[in-house]
């Protein structure tokens, strides 16, 4: 039987707007509560080393007031580990982080950091937090992720979305590059299941790119943020989330009907 698919809404860029001129508005907590009412199953927030969007006070307020699970995205550093253990969110997604990047540019090199990540997974799991590793859909990285003891992986969908948008910008239908990147996600999701890992996916997903990923039976959660915040400028956050939820559910229903 095909599982329902969950939607995690990333509110980082509500905080980006707030921080652009200081003050308290727009409020990430208000956005998180609205997202939950609109159909989000959880809220994702990335506390970066440089605090460029979400800040410590946001995590405190989200932890205290959310009625849906909080997924804290963070680098695998001692500072972030201490913060996560103090707040004990429902989930932590360990991601790569470079100060100079605009957004997360790729997945973790789990194979190259296996011992460090294994320690983080163990400490967070011991504190009652479910841990996921944000990785590219690559066999080597998936096998390394399983070896750390992490129960969840989140597959990086950025390359697929970029290829789709590049073809669209040239007035073309999805091309071979788009299909190759989607095939990598399909294979990665399948391997995750074979390795006993819960599989999530996210990064760059839009109304136009979400359905093929949501249709993958092994993928049980999508985390989407920047596109929804951008779309909210035109239609409102509630309407943007409801539309994304609708598209995901349509894709899932077709899978269930075919199985």
TrEMBL record:
Keyword annotations of the record: Cytoplasm, Pyridoxine biosynthesis, Transferase
Chief subcellular location: cytoplasm
One Pfam family it belongs to: PdxJ
Positions annotated to bind 3-amino-2-oxopropyl phosphate: 10, 21, 204, 225-226
Site keyed Transition state stabilizer: positions: 154
Record pathway: Cofactor biosynthesis; pyridoxine 5'-phosphate biosynthesis; pyridoxine 5'-phosphate from D-erythrose 4-phosphate: step 5/5
Catalytic activity line of the entry: 3-amino-2-oxopropyl phosphate + 1-deoxy-D-xylulose 5-phosphate = pyridoxine 5'-phosphate + phosphate + 2 H2O + H(+)
Subcellular localization, as worded in the UniProt entry: Cytoplasm
Record EC number: 2.6.99.2
Keyword Transferase: yes
Keyword rRNA-binding: no
Sequence positions that bind 1-deoxy-D-xylulose 5-phosphate: 12-13, 48, 53, 103
SUPFAM superfamilies: Pyridoxine 5'-phosphate synthase (SSF63892)
InterPro entries in UniProt: Aldolase_TIM, PyrdxlP_synth_PdxJ, Pyridoxine-5'_phos_synth
Active-site residue numbers: 46, 73, 203
Function of the protein: Catalyzes the complicated ring closure reaction between the two acyclic compounds 1-deoxy-D-xylulose-5-phosphate (DXP) and 3-amino-2-oxopropyl phosphate (1-amino-acetone-3-phosphate or AAP) to form pyridoxine 5'-phosphate (PNP) and inorganic phosphate.
PANTHER family per record: PYRIDOXINE 5'-PHOSPHATE SYNTHASE (PTHR30456)
UniProt family annotation: Belongs to the PNP synthase family.
Assembly and binders: Homooctamer; tetramer of dimers.
Protein name: Pyridoxine 5'-phosphate synthase
Organism: Rhodovibrio sodomensis
């Amino acid at each position: 039987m095909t599982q329902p698919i969950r939607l995690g809404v990333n509110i980082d860029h509500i905080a980006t707007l707030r921080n652009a001129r200081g003050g308290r508005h727009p409020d990430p907590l208000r956005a998180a509560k609205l997202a939950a009412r609109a159909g989000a199953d959880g809220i994702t927030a990335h506390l970066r080393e440089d605090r460029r969007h979400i800040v410590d006070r946001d995590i405190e307020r989200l932890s205290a007031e959310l009625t849906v699970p909080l997924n804290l995205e963070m680098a695998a550093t001692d500072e972030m580990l201490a913060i996560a253990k103090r707040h004990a969110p429902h989930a932590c997604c360990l991601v790569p982080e470079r100060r100079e990047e605009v957004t997360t540019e790729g997945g973790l090199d789990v194979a190259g950091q296996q011992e460090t990540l294994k320690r983080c997974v163990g400490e967070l799991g011991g504190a009652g937090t479910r841990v996921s590793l944000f990785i590219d859909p690559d066999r080597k990285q998936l096998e390394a992720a399983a070896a750390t003891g992490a129960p969840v992986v989140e597959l990086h969908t950025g390359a697929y979305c970029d290829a789709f948008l590049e073809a669209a910008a040239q007035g073309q239908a999805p091309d071979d590059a788009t299909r190759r990147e989607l095939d990598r996600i399909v294979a990665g999701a399948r391997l995750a299941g074979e390795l006993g890992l819960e599989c999530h996916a996210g990064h760059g997903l839009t109304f136009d790119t979400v359905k093929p990923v949501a249709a993958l039976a092994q993928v049980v959660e999508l985390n989407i943020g920047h596109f929804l915040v951008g779309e909210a400028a035109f239609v409102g956050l509630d309407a943007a989330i409801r539309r994304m939820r609708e598209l995901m559910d349509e894709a899932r229903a077709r899978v269930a009907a075919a199985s």
